[in-house]
Amino acid sequence: ILNVEQSPQSLHVQEGDSTNFTCSFPSSNFYALHWYRWETAKSPEALFVMTLNGDEKKKGRISATLNTKEGYSYLYIKGSQPEDSATYLCALYILTGGGNKLTFGTGTQLKVEL
Amino acid sequence: EAGVTQFPSHSVIEKGQTVTLRCDPISGHDNLYWYRRVMGKEIKFLLHFVKESKQDESGMPNNRFLAERTGGTYSTLKVQPAELEDSGVYFCASSGNSYNSPLHFGNGTRLTVT
Question: What residue spans of A7-106 are helical by DSSP H?
Fold first, then answer.
């Protein structure tokens, strides 16, 4: 069983705060690390796909870093806004004997309050 | 381009009945995944098609679940007979052929078994 862990499980911040959360994963057989944003009553939406150790990606106020050697990725949100409230999922892409597989973490639920 | 579409959006059936969910991936996407989210818990992998072949079906809970993707286009997921614990939201996603291709999710089918 492949464990992709995210922390914290949930987070409440005030509008304007910057925040970050963690995705931890086993570093063997690593191919790619995906981040998705999942708003309530919608479907997950891709934020980033990261493949190289040391990768850093940015999309507006959201950025992510990747450390494949130690098996973690951080997602940062600068100046949180209420519309950032969502569940943020990371997913690990590995190549197994049976083919490739994308395994999701449990998610970090972010609530941004006014 | 048209996104991933799923049908129906909601289904309410009685225990013991049969339900078939359908997913139409983005045209040209060889990879098609089924995932399930049960009662607000994490999103769980069910299976993965590459074209018409089942690449990985390790997440299928039991033999009451049958997935097909005839001709490598749309996919169906049949639950027969349905049990109460099968209730949840079933998501389909498709992606291109590279490991760094993000998943594009459908809006999901909310299945309620009573």
Answer: none
DSSP class of B80: S
Q: So what's the pLDDT on residue B108?
A: 95
The span from the CA of A59 to the CA of B64, in Å, is: 42
Here the tokens at position B54 are 């089942």
Radius of gyration (C-alpha) of chain A in whole angstroms: 14
The mean pLDDT value for B49-57 works out to: 91
Is the CB of residue A105 less than 8 Å from the CB of residue A35? no
Which residue in the block uniquely carries the two structure tokens 């998501």?
B91
In this structure, what token pair is assigned to residue A6? 């995210």
Which chain B positions have a beta carbon within 8 Å of A34's beta carbon? 102-103
Separation CA A37–CA B26 (nearest Å)? 20
Residue A1 has pLDDT above 70, yes or no: no
Beta carbons of B45 and A103 less than 8 angstroms apart: yes
- % residues pLDDT > 70 (chain A): 94
CA–CA distances in Å: residue A97 to residues A49, A94, B6: 22, 10, 30
**Cβ–Cβ < 8 Å for B88, B38:** yes
- Kindly list the residues of chain B whose beta carbon comes within 8 Å of any beta carbon in chain A: 33, 35, 41-45, 48, 50, 55-56, 58, 91, 93, 99-108
* Closest partner CB to A106 (pick from B33, B42, B101): B42
**Cα separations in angstroms, A88 against A46, A76, A91, B37:** 10, 11, 10, 15
